[in-house]
Design a protein that fits this description.
heterodimer, A: about 35% helix, B: about 200 residues, alpha/beta, 7-stranded mixed sheet, 4-stranded mixed sheet, about 30% helix, globular
Chain lengths: ~400, ~200
Amino acid sequence: MKESIHIKNLGPIKDIFIDDIKPLTVLIGESGSGKSTLMKVVALFRWLYKMHNIHSYLKTSNVSKSLFNFNINAYFKNCGFEEYLKNDTEIIYTVEFSDNRKYTLHFVQNELTGTSDKNLIETQDLCYNKISFISETRNIIPLWSERGASLSGGYLGFYFHEVYNDFDLASENIKDLDINYLNLKLSVEKEQSIKKYYIQDPDKEYKLTLKNSSSGTQNAIPVSLIAEHFSKYFDFEEAFNRTLLNFLSKTDSLRDFKPVKNLGEIKKKLFIHIEEPELSLYPDAQCELINDLISKCFVSNKNTIDLMFSTHSPYIINHLNLLIKAHDCNKLIDGAKIEFEKIAVYLVEEGEIEDLVAKNQRIINTNALSDTINNIYDKYNQLDKDGRLIEE
Amino acid sequence: MEDLLKNDFTAYYDLSVCDEPNLTIQTNKPYFEIEDNALIKDIVLHTKIGAGMARFSNPKSATVTVAKYEKFVTSLPNSFQRSRKRCDIIVCDNGNNLILGEIKDSPNIKGHRKEAKKQLYESLITLLAVPQFIELTNLKTIKRCCYFNKQPISPTGITATTAFNRLPEIFKDGFKMNFPAIEENNFEYWEYSGNQTLTL
């Protein structure tokens, strides 16, 4: 299966085309360059495609009633795109299988096409996907988990509640998690039916509630916990059945339903999207967090995962070169390695992307990511001892 | 190459024959660097390491012609030049190499790369319209559009820049990068930074 995305004229994005979204896709660029917008569009269209798969599955399983009404404007509102949409905004998301079997979701002139009964997905191509978006608002999770339950009707935005739901679900399955890159352990305890999250050091010399831990810890823990959950514990069958039952009972179609395929025969995949996994972490810990993530998503995983994340960290991009070489040498770096063919790194700049993967070496070209440090010392060299600018 | 630019290129674009002197430099040195000298506004060849911005290794001591393409375009009538992007140099040897080059001396690779790519691409398209240039490309097997960027010098005792710039020390041969528009024209897009050297 090959996915491509083409986005034109959406907020900061002028024209971005990714012909083949790789299992590990990393976006680096300045604030406001369009990284998050790109990732949110990819996540949204993956979700739309997932829903279209369910729609196709039910239709071919003898459920004739109208099941879905894709309200693209409501989804764009959830993404915060209302102010980004222009008259000439266009998004084309394509999934391609062998023998040129292709499914395209196309948004143009404020209309989404490709999700109707005329465009049903063939049985052999049906897949069931789970899409997770770990937003930068995850640092509110510790506080929300403690206070949020008492705030009925409280709403902190679509992406926060998405990541909170995933965090909550993950902590149902995982009660203890070693966070080796921070030399900490997370434990989940239930007190009067309310979950409490604690951070302990390995020697058990101290125990803190998560909300009182460092900002780096509060940002990193949700990333590791959710990744661990999806990597090893996510139950596709349970999620699939829940989704189906939900739709079938809503439309009173349970009696009509004659499954065309069992879930076991359907392809399954998890898509994790993370905004700046490195938030508030020291560079060493940033690299170790990436080891942890790569290990969970591509080495020790039981479920198939595609990972996309945005970052501001040149350390992380340089570190990926080490993980590529580790794979080539069949060596693990803190449990992590990544296949060169599975990775793409894009510099997002002025609404366009620059592919940073070198084609003659198995390497990410990070030269441009040294500009900041070079600029600093270039200016340093230009100042004389009295603070005057030395003319070249 | 000089004849191609002065006569064939101008004839194709219906311009008067160019009489700009010193449009090419020839060398067969096994190592040389090219500088785009802002003071004298000219392309200069160096054999001293670190004196130039684009580094070339010429192990077979081939006869290499460096054409000052930007200088050539700048000498043409304004009506032709206007809004026509141009790269700095064309490097061609008597072997298989044909190189279009844009050279910078800046700490800011990211800032200049986008413009450099446009300059290289538009130069390539302008040149490929000339039948004699197409004939030349047909004789060559190594055809590249290259963005060369000299790495700045760090203050004594500061290792941060050295650390951040280690990649070009490991991979001396430059990086071949993705640029479909150039690749469609049977050229490759390469980037060279710091000590990275193009071997002819």
